[in-house]
Amino acid sequence: MQYISTRGEAPVLSFEDAMMTGLARDGGLYVPQEIPGLDADTIAAMAGQSYEDIAFTVMRPFIGDTFTDAEFRELIAAAYSGFDHAARAPLKQLDANHFLLELFHGPTLAFKDFAMQLIGQMFQASLTRSGKRITIVGATSGDTGSAAIEAFRGLSNVDVFILFPHGRVSEVQRRQMTTPTEGNVHALAMDGDFDDCQAALKDMFNDFDFRDAVNLAGVNSINWGRVLAQVVYYFSSAVSLGAPHRKVSFTVPTGNFGDIFAGYIAKRMGLPIEQLVIATNQNDILHRTLQTGAQVKEGVTPSISPSMDIQVSSNFERALFYAYGQDGAVVAEQMQDLKDKGGFTISQGAIEMLRDTFASGRASEDETSATIAAEVKRSGELLCPHSAVGVKVAEDHLGAVPMITLATAHPAKFPAAVEQATGQHPPLPPHMADLFDREERVTRVPNDLAALQALITERIQT
Ligand SMILES: Cc1ncc(COP(=O)(O)O)c(C=O)c1O
Ligand SMILES: N[C@@H](CCOP(=O)(O)O)C(=O)O
């Protein structure tokens, strides 16, 4: 299996190299040259299997000879051993035809753990073989950061720097990133919003002198390995509702477009998905893009679902690449227009493909709060605000086919929003019960590339 860049100009790489490289050297994102299919019998055989067995079957065709089957099984087992639910991603029924996929049973209480725990294992295996030392820099609106820190804290051959927007993540999210005591963890509170953090990260990758000097690696969904690991729970949940003999639909709370893009990959692999619904908060650029056929950047407005306060949605580039029939030159041009002119118009053929593949909706702040309040009364399920955005939008798309909404984080990560909506204070799980007593360690940084690079260079030398 070979990996190519969405902008068509970067070297073609193996799975291992694409994973360790992060952003392609032409500024694009790596995708598999071909998307392997799974036949109906293989999908049907997943019924009743463990999450780990399904993960092996789904991901194996993508990894080439990076790991032997036995090694890969071991890495998967280690990745999910710390989850606090035997099913890893349990499905709960909300209503007659509406189900919630709980993706918050990993160590940092968000769906990011599914991919980050596995990436942590795969990185370690690869670094042990190569003897290399790397510098991970990640951008986060709250959840990727803590998941990355959890996966890489304490490793002697990795430094992990996490850029988060100062004042724009929840207090629990911030403390998850600022309280680890390991010397290889560096929490950086940057002036600006998540888009600024992600732009700075991509600028670091595009500065080849810096990138090569620090051996830069990425664990955002820039990294194909992140998307791949997220494909698995589309299969595990769909099969438990009768796939491949029965179709299912998914609604996905969306920001950087990685999670829903994983759903698109599942569909391309043969999972019978009827609708893939993009659910956005008031930062609704993705919903507007589908409606109007043009992607036009607006400023980010802080919301009660802060992890989705994103306007430059990195993985939309991967969807565009397929919408344009894998034409990297067109994608490169549109991404340049987004950067230079603040937007681009999608061709008629490409927008039709996107509209055939994705539906979309948005939830306002009031609708999000009302959904949290209504759902706890109706089904007893306490939703985090991101999951509530999903449930609200899903309700507008219910039909004959079972709908699965992804619950992307635990309500305890966003206690203020949940308490305001319901009067209930969601308690942190026992392993995080003393989070508010732990000492914080964080560096405030400006939105200035040269200053960030200087800080990172200095820190890894000491
Ligand atoms: C809790 C939560 N829900 C939803 C999302 C959106 O996911 P994606 O960025 O993959 O679209 C994020 C951030 O990525 C998140 O942290
Ligand atoms: N919501 C994310 C934003 C980064 O997304 P990623 O999937 O590209 O890592 C976060 O919580 O940081």
UniProtKB/TrEMBL annotation:
Q: Which InterPro entries match?
A: Ser/Thr_deHydtase_PyrdxlP-BS (IPR000634), Thr_synth_N (IPR029144), Thr_synth_N_sf (IPR037158), Thr_synthase-like (IPR004450), Threonine_Synthase (IPR051166), TrpB-like_PALP (IPR001926), TrpB-like_PALP_sf (IPR036052)
Q: Which residues carry this modification: N6-(pyridoxal phosphate)lysine?
A: 112
EC class of this enzyme?
lyase
Reported EC number(s) for this entry are 4.2.3.1
- Pfam families reported for this sequence: PALP, THR4_C, Thr_synth_N
Which PROSITE patterns does the UniProt entry name for this protein? DEHYDRATASE_SER_THR
BP terms from Gene Ontology: threonine biosynthetic process
Q: Sorted alphabetically, which SUPFAM superfamilies does this protein's record hold?
A: Tryptophan synthase beta subunit-like PLP-dependent enzymes
Q: What cofactor does this chain's UniProt record say it requires?
A: pyridoxal 5'-phosphate
Pathway(s) per entry? Amino-acid biosynthesis; L-threonine biosynthesis; L-threonine from L-aspartate: step 5/5
Coiled-coil intervals, chain numbering: none
GO molecular function ontology, one term from the record: threonine synthase activity
List, for all copies, the residue spans of the domain called Threonine synthase N-terminal: 2-80
Keyword field contains Lyase = yes
Q: Which family does it belong to?
A: Belongs to the threonine synthase family.
Q: What is this protein called?
A: Threonine synthase
Q: Which organism is it from?
A: Thalassorhabdomicrobium marinisediminis
